[in-house]
Amino acid sequence: MVGVVFDVGNVLLQWNPRFLMRKLLPDDAAVEHFLREICPPTWNLEQDRGRPWAEGVRIQAARHPAYAGLIQTWNERWHETLPGPVAGMPELVAELAGAGVPLHILSNFSAEKFAETRQRYAPLFAHFDQIVISGEVGFVKPETQIFTHLLARTAERPHELAFVDDVADYAHAATRLGIHGIGFRDEPTLRRELIGLGLPLRPR
Q1: In this structure, is residue 66 part of a structural domain?
Q2: Is residue 113's pLDDT more than 80?
Q3: Both 44 and 145 in a single domain?
Q4: Among 131, 124, 127, which Cα is nearest to 105's?
Q5: Which helix H or strand E contains 27, and what residues bound it?
Q6: Contact 117, 143 (CB under 8 A)
Q7: Full domain range(s) for residue 66
Q8: Of all residues in the chain, what percent are helix, strand and coil, respectively (each to 5)?
Q9: pTM for this entry
Q10: Is there a single domain that holds both residue 97 and residue 129?
């Protein structure tokens, strides 16, 4: 094993639109209705594929005019959906980097929202070599093209990489290409799995 590739949302940093929507809507039922019927994951994925957020807001506000203000607020206060690091992960990343392990990122993420996120968490992202963001390259996980794009950028062979993602289908997509896909649960479990692959981490 040579290097480790990390997803961002719910691996390195907590992400959930409910962090914001619970501040804006009266109860969980209203939140779930909004995220299922008004701005579902398929809508958000188009921003991850490269559509500008302003365009996504315009399209969805036209479809659901009663929610236009709330949709715009999601855009304006998007940073509240990403409140901070996943417990233990900045320390694990720093430990790997300190041991000289090549570290990369492969994430479904809006290009514009990643730019602001990278600035907010600059010390964390400074540890990474290649950073492949779906909104910048036009492909999203689990599409093969985004993984082959990463491999071309790193010049590493698939079996030399471990890929950590909280979405099992995405980890499985990496495994099908010969990368060691790891489904993320928490930092202690990941630490044990990476140690098992021979990476230089301290047991806990």
Answers
A1: yes
A2: yes
A3: no
A4: 131
A5: none
A6: no
A7: 18-81
A8: 55, 10, 30
A9: 0.96
A10: yes
